[in-house]
Amino acid sequence: MCGRYATTRSSGELSALFESSDDTDGLLGPDHNVAPTDPVPLVRVSPEGHRSLCVGRWGLLPHWSRSAAGAARMINARAETVATSRAYAGSFSRRRCLVPADGWYEWVRRPDGGRQAFYLTPRDGSVLALAGIWSVWGSDADTRLTFSVLTTAALGDLAEVHDRMPVLLPPERWSSWLAPTDEPERLLIPASAQWLAGLEIRPVGAAVGDVRNDGPHLTARVPAVTPQELTLF
Question: For 26, 29, 116, 184, which has the most beta carbons within 10 A of its beta carbon?
Fold first, then answer.
């Protein structure tokens, strides 16, 4: 999974969809071009035991990290090794979260050497929940809630645009992902082929490649091109 996605729903809409409290304090707005270390919504179980929509920064920082400099390299955790990684294992075992998204971006190389961006999103416009893990880092003066998105081998048509994809959680699996368990590895089963078939692979313009750009035009379809016509990047 590349390092960009979109999350544009309001905190009120997300808290209703995920049946959570809204603890974002009005700090979030729509973002069509989320990049590493950006603040975005996530859903976790609060210390009081209920679902909480809160603000996290993309790029997990283990509590023992000496600085925040490495956060941009920690945006994704591989499902194959997350249970044994020193950086991620503790969060995977005890601190799992849902990362709301409208869709995510991938790039495929064109025959002319350039790159074609694709936006992967539900055809019906429903919300995606990416499987995430979180950690709290910092001191009292600078405490941050940080997270990573789990990735796995791409399946079905999604493999035509990238060999990795986020671990996607259909709504019926949200509760089990957030609930305590002694065997979290069992939660890493892939979404069904039927559910994944509901995702659109949409060609979009090059503007999303610049993190300074934002707005709904980034997810607008451009003249049709299929991944099969291009070379996997």
Answer: 116
**β-strand 164-166 against 142-153: which pairing, if any?**
antiparallel
pLDDT for 46-98, tens place per residue?
Answer: 989 999 999 999 999 999 998 899 999 999 999 999 999 999 999 999 999 99
Determine how many CB atoms are found less than 10 A away from the CB of residue 200: 15
Number of other CB atoms surrounding residue 57 within 10 Å: 21
Residue-wise DSSP of 110-148: -TTS-EEEEEEEETT-PPEEEEEEEEEEEETTEEEEEEE
User: What is the rounded CA–CA span in Å between residue 75 and residue 158?
Assistant: 20
Length of the chain: 233
Q: What is the pLDDT of residues 25-34, one digit of tens each?
A: 999 999 999 9
Q: In what order do the strands lie in the sheet with 5-7?
A: 31-34, 5-7, 103-109, 115-122, 199-204
Structure tokens at 41: 């919504």
pTM metric for this prediction: 0.94
